[in-house]
Amino acid sequence: MDQDLRPTGIEVSNSDGVLTIDWSDGHHSEYALFGLRKNCPCVVCRGGHGQMNTFDRGLFFVDPPQKFEVKNIQQIGNHAIKIFWNDGHNNGMYQWQTLRDMCPCKECYPEQE
Question: With left for phi above 0 and alpha for psi between -120 and 50, is residue 48 left, alpha or beta?
Answer without folding.
Answer: left
